[in-house]
Amino acid sequence: MKTIIRGLLTTVLVFTFTMVPTVIFAEKSVNEKLIGEYTKEEVSKQMTTTLQQELPELTTKEIEIIQTKIDNSKTINDIINKYTNRILKDLSSDKVENINIKNDIATILEENKSIVEETLDRKIADEDYDRVIDEIVNNDALDNAYKHLIEDTKNNMPKETKTMIEGYNTITSDQFIITTIIISIVSIILIALLKKPYYKWIVNVGIAGIISSLFICLIGASIVLLLNIVIDTLDQPISISASPMFVTAAIMLIISVVLIIINNTLDKKLEQKQVKA
Predict the structure, then answer these.
(1) Which of 53, 105, 215, 275 is most buried, judging by how many CB atoms fall within 10 Å of its CB?
(2) Do 17 and 95 reside in the same domain of the chain?
């Protein structure tokens, strides 16, 4: 009976060891790469359009330099991360709540005035720059475009897709990851209590790690293949690599092999003690 329970607990470890890195990788790939890059492009386009309208002395090259520098700023990346999570939440909810993209864009411009001045190699009068920001704050076009985009997508989205998004939001939540980690720890403790001598739990962890590393490679490659197909259809100039998943699998495999070697070493020492006794 104990053997069956240990087997079930080891299977649970295979599931949890596979799920945690897979979920983290999927969230980063979808949120940061797929949705994040698209959102950043749209926000960036709105900013540069407004700058060109309100500061006509800016050349195309100067606009491109400003756009590149702002795209790499921490402020815009923090804002984009907020909206990538918001997009997935809105797609799975019944109602799209009010959104203030325009205020966030204004914040980005406020915090990056020095970049614009540096590119122009001159100071910009506060009233001129405030005019640019006011133009954005008073323009509801981007907020309305977001709402229409979400509503149109939801209306044309099959029920199965909405269910998939709801499932994705659930498994990528902090609560799910924390729960999975707790399940792993509890399973290891139970295996240790069920198996003697005291160190034998590392065999089950090692076996679970080896199997999980194979699953991580396969799932990682599948996720990347699927996402890159989606990216191609959207004509986005980005690609997603499975390298993080392969590296994770390799580390897990090495640790698992080391654990099994440690177990074998401890077994030999225990046998030697029993022989001497």
Answers:
(1) 105
(2) no
CB atoms within 10 A of CB 24: 15
Summarised one tens digit per residue, pLDDT across range 178-236 is 999 999 999 999 998 887 787 888 999 999 999 999 999 999 999 888 888 877 766 66
Do 34 and 157 lie in a common domain? yes
For the chain, state the CA radius of gyration. 26
Q: What is the CB neighbour count within 10 angstroms for residue 77? A: 14
How many beta carbons lie within 10 A of that of residue 132, not counting itself? 21
Preceding omega of 197 cis (within 30 degrees of 0): yes
**Amino acid letter at 11?**
T
Answer yes or no: do 133 and 109 share one domain: yes
Give the mean pLDDT of 27-35: 76
pTM of the model: 0.72
Domain count, the chain: 2
Residue 19 sits in the same domain as residue 36: no
Distance (Å, whole) CA 66 – CA 119? 7
Nearest in space to 251 (alpha carbons), one of 202, 212, 220: 212
